[in-house]
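Reviewers of the previous submission asked for a worked example of the structure-prediction workflow described in the proposal, so we include one complete record here. The input consisted solely of the amino acid sequence. No template or homolog information was supplied to the procedure at any stage.
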Amino acid sequence: MRAMTMRAMTVVPGVAGSAAVTEVEGPVGTGGVLVAGVAVGICGTDVEIAAGEYGTAPPGDQRLVIGHESVGRVLHAPAGSHLSEGDLVVGIVRRPDPVPCAACAADAWDMCRNGLYTERGIKDLHGFGAEQWRIESDFAVAVPASLGELAVLVEPASVVAKAWAHIEHISARGPAAPRTALVTGAGPIGLLATLLGVQRGLEVHVLDRVEDGPKPGLVADLGAEYHTGSVNDLDPADIVLECTGAPSVVLDVIQRNSHAGITCLTGVSSGGRTVELDIGATNRRMVLENDVVFGSVNANRLHYEAAAVALGAADPAWLARLITRRVPLDSWVEGLARRSDDVKVVVELSPTG
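From that input alone, the workflow returned the following structure tokens.
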């Protein structure tokens, strides 16, 4: 019997310029839940994989199906699972390592201790950028049908849901609740971090270098304040979420926050750049002010579920404005090229999106 083939978004990891639409044997992936792909978002990780900077295909495969910001509709689910035909679902990206480490054994694969995890569309597993994909029911998150295609934002929102969860855990160390937050970077992660900060009742300020386009309005319509310029131009904030990965900005936010401040680094730096740092003075200030600086990446199921709740409580018209460009599957490579007015680019996997 001839294997079923379908179109997918693929690259040859490590080879720049290899991104293409290819026919693959499908459905893509493994697991008892069969899903019709609705859309995937393109983020900086996808751009870097397509540029050949990293990414690994499954053993034995030359090409990797990418796409980790997913949304799809269930075509079939095993009896007894928490899913039914027609459910809207988002796929969890990371899988626990095979050892497993203590974190992965506790379903906290986002905190893997030995780095042997795998990730769909990134590391050793095909992603969700295909017309149909399979997934294990434990790694499929049902989301409100009302979100529709906007559920493609759940994965990036899960990243900031985790960051906020850890910030709140650290905040519990002292009696004074934080009042102000600074988000550096108004890309999708920064804007979603702002949304979750506003939902928590904080006074949120957003710093970005862009002076026009959709970003200032998106921030203002959340009730937050948009700034350009330097971190040093702003009052110190109780909480900082650094979402750019720019070394100079990372240094600025570490050196300038409130006493007992919490700085969460979510932006991944590219490396190769150096900045001058007086580590002694920085250490002295952090110790004397009880500051905390920590990094956060990825998410586990609890964070995906929290993200779905947060998006469900948001203004759908505001969420829709985050998706500034849609491209069809046949033209998905065009979505890798950044435009000045892009916030989130989405690839529509089905004719109806």
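The longest strand covers residues 33-42. We consider this example representative of the routine output the project will generate in years two and three.
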